[in-house]
Write a structure and sequence with these properties.
By secondary structure, this protein is of the alpha+beta class. The chain has four domains: 3-58, no CATH class; 73-117 and 240-396, 3-hydroxy-3-methylglutaryl-coenzyme A Reductase, Chain A, domain 2 (Alpha-Beta Complex), CATH 3.90.770; 122-234, 2-Layer Sandwich (Alpha-Beta Plaits); 401-456, no CATH class. The chain is built from 17 helices and ten strands. The strands form three sheets. Strands 3-8-10-9 form a four-stranded antiparallel sheet. A four-stranded antiparallel sheet has the order 5-6-4-7. The protein is globular. The structure holds (R)-mevalonate (MEV).
Length: 457
């Protein structure tokens, strides 16, 4: 029987997490693969040679059996606020790093990227149910707020010394959604750390103290002393942790954007493409995906949480009631303006940023930025990526650039030699690339000596 079609009980296991790493691999290869020995060898071939380093990587997650390797590339020539950067990017998609590099070089000679952090506030919530008179809760809240801040002073001391801490605690009445539903909402400044642990620890302390505080209220009905905390967690939506990146230049200077299009036509087509991503959520999703090609690649390379940043960005893209472009464009008095506003909670200390050896190197490559600088670098990369993608779309189309790499990837998968790759690049210059066409091309040149290759003529 095919091992992938074993009855479910044969593939289940208890105590898997207690097995050694080799034990885990052994169980997996024996139960799920046809050639266990080869698969075991392959999985182990991706272990980092240095055992200590491998232990560090294993410590990031659970049930680890190997490492999943992704390309680590760099995009040089990023001029951001008059400073040059070479941006580290971790991404598996071809053409992304090339597009970022081209866009960076293009804008380098047109003033570069201008970036600014608009605000750095993060939020968290304690969601709770309380059945009492709302006016009583509002009445006692100022006292509760003071106590919440005081009682968690020991947790915030370090952060306060670094200039951060709790900025605000407020009470939200959501009883219109559900009887008795309220929130404690905290606003926090977590300086150069992403702050998830800091905020979540504080919120759990808030929950404990909220329960205690209400249980100690005198001369109120017994039911009012009881608070049911449903959950306490930061919000990954951080619209007040916001960064802006922009580029601009006279429309005439776009004349060199492409050989076959004048600056005015290019600017008009580019402007319309951006507006289309404002009008149509189907286009907006792909448009923003292009922005996140750049954003996520730097977020990953610097050991930050790309899921949080994606989720936040997409919520922000819907802030006006429908999902729309995160970037915008304006042509005014002969000047082309293109910009991006993105909420982004990233850290440059703590978490993976200081543990992952490559994340540390990425930050070093960027000159060890603080969180505000990293936000700006990431936003500039997202804008560059968006510019590169939309520029291709409104001029040559996206496939031209993609296809060369796609072709090389297909050829590599088909074990093509360097000579065959060279020949294929020439042959496919003006032809459509597909698995089938590449397979046929290789078949022909492998079967036929060069003098007999009329089919390729
Ligand atoms: C591909 O990964 C990203 C693009 O689709 C973005 C866009 O359409 O703007 C090219």
């Amino acid at each position: 029987m095919d091992s992938n079609h074993l009855p479910p009980e044969m593939k289940s296991i208890s105590g898997f997490s207690k097995l050694s790493k080799r034990g885990k691999i052994k169980w997996i290869v024996e139960n799920f693969f046809k050639d266990p020995e080869n698969v075991m060898r392959e999985l182990m071939s991706y272990w980092v040679q240095n055992e200590e380093q491998q232990k560090v990587l294993d410590g990031f997650s659970e049930n680890t059996i190997s490492n999943f390797v992704l390309p680590y590339g760099v995009a040089p020539n990023f001029l951001i606020n008059n400073q040059m950067y070479c941006i580290p990017m971790v991404i598996e998609e071809s053409s992304v790093v090339a597009a970022a590099s081209h866009a960076a070089k293009f804008w380098m000679t047109r003033g570069g990227f201008r970036t600014e952090v608009i605000s750095m506030i993060k939020e968290g919530q304690v969601h709770f149910i309380w059945h009492g008179d709302p006016s009583f809760l509002h009445e006692v809240f100022p006292k509760l707020r003071k106590e919440l801040i005081e009682k968690t002073g020991y947790l915030t001391e370090n952060m306060r010394q670094r200039g951060g801490g709790i900025l605000e605690v407020s009470l939200e009445d959501l009883t219109d959604k559900e009887p008795g539903y309220y929130q404690l909402r905290g606003k926090f400044d977590t300086r150069d750390s992403m702050g998830a642990n800091f905020i979540n620890t504080l919120l759990e302390e808030f929950s404990q103290h909220l329960k205690l505080f209400m249980s100690q209220q005198q001369e109120v009905p017994e039911a009012w002393k009881d608070v049911e905390v449903i959950m306490a967690i930061l919000s990954n939506y951080t619209p007040e942790c916001l960064v802006r990146a922009s580029v601009s230049c006279p429309v005439q200077e776009l004349d060199q954007a492409l050989k076959d299009m004048d600056g005015e036509t290019f600017a008009r087509r580019f402007y319309l493409a951006i507006k289309m991503a404002h009008w149509d959520p189907f286009r907006a999703t792909t448009h923003n995906k292009g922005i996140f090609n750049g954003v996520d690649a730097v977020v990953l390379a610097t050991g930050n949480d790309f899921r949080a940043i994606e989720a936040c960005g997409h919520t922000y893209a819907s802030r006006h009631g429908n999902y729309a472009s995160l970037s915008d464009c304006r042509i005014e008095n002969g000047v082309f303006h293109f910009w991006l506003e993105l909420p982004m909670a990233v850290g440059t200390t703590g978490g993976l940023t200081s543990l992952h050896p490559m994340a540390k190197r990425s930050l070093e490559l960027l000159g060890n930025p603080d969180a505000e600088q990293l936000m700006q670098i990431i936003a500039a990369t997202g804008l560059a990526q968006n510019f590169g993608a939309v520029k291709s779309l409104v001029t040559t189309g996206i496939q031209k650039g993609h296809m060369k790499m796609h072709l090389v990837n297909i050829l590599t998968r088909m074990d093509a030699s360097e000579k065959e790759i060279k020949e294929a690049l020439v042959y496919f210059k003006d032809k459509v690339v597909s698995f089938q066409s590449v397979r046929e091309f290789l078949d022909v040149i492998r079967k036929n000596p060069p003098e007999n290759q009329q089919i390729l003529a």
